Amino acid sequence: MTIQQLLKTAPVTTLLLASFIGLFIMQILTGVDANNPSTEALLKWGANALPFTMGDDPWRLVSSAFLHIGLMHLLFNGFAMYFFGQIAEPMFGSAKFLALFLLAAIGGNLLNSYVTWQSILDGTGQPGLSAGASGGIMGIGAALLIAALFKISVNGMVLNLKSLIFIMGINLVYGFAVPGIDNAGHIGGAITGLVIALAFAIGYRQRLAVAIQNAAIQQQRTFNAYQTNYSYSAHDTPSYNSHYSGQYNDQHDNQSRYDATPLNQSPYFAANSTEQDTVVANNETNTADVYAKSITANNSSLSHEAVHNSIEPEALKKPSIIWQLLPWLAMLLISIGFVWWWQDIHQQLLQVLKAIE
Known about the structure:
The chain folds into 2 domains: about 5-220 and about 325-355, Rhomboid-like fold, CATH 1.20.1540; about 235-305. Helix content is about 75%, strand content about 0%. The protein contains 13 helices and 4 strands. The chain has helices at about 5-10, 10-30, 40-45, 50-55, 60-65, 70-90, 95-120, 135-150, 160-175, 185-225, 235-260, 270-305, 320-355; strands at about 50, 130, 155, 155-160. α8 runs parallel beside α10 and α10 (about 185-225) runs antiparallel to α13.
């Protein structure tokens, strides 16, 4: 996918990648080592460090997600963002995708700070620093796992659940196997992404159910527009058949008697031919009248007893707005929880510092 295609399909992903690369170039131009930046340089550019982040610089929870420790770190996270972003952003929408990345990054940094703080209290650890988009990317990957589990499609394609589990597993195993990897940041970001994606998936399922019901209603409306059933009166048809049949038999008998008399043997042919013709004509006229009356009667019965058997379909349903707002409500609650979590660690840190003084 070219840069133009990526910008059109996933603009936020493109901007995030540009910000990662741009910040790294700015570091290099100011003299920061491209492969082994110093602690002072990383702190200057916004790395996550417990005394600062949980003290007076909570903005480091966000800034550290755009900062990378060396070129290989940038390349690894850049490739992961490119791979996940071009799928996740069209699926969740640009605004939700950006909020997902930021909250997952914050969640990862908060869990890192919490674990570090607990280890300091237990006497088994010491303050450190962390940086990188790994927490946010793990949150996006976890969200894609939920999307694959709920069979949410992207442009008609459903994600491969096994492949996503394999990729996420490699990242987690790699983090535990290689020293210096922020495992707490990965796990915190993944958990945050899972919660947000669950809210999105539940809302998606509910909206999909309403869409399926509306499609069925539309189909029923189209079907009913062409469906008309008629019922016929059962007592009219037999009487018509028997009456017409009797008259037809009488006519046939009369015609048989008329035809049976030879013309050259009848002494009364000349005198009675007109009379016989009149009888035959009358019989034919009576038969036609009976037929016409029968047809009229049946048509009248049909017109009175025709039933238009169309069922009025129910009205189209509208999805509840709560399902559209559910992901945002979940992210709002997560944000409130993160503020409370930071305040809790911050107050504990202040109490310890006051006790030391």
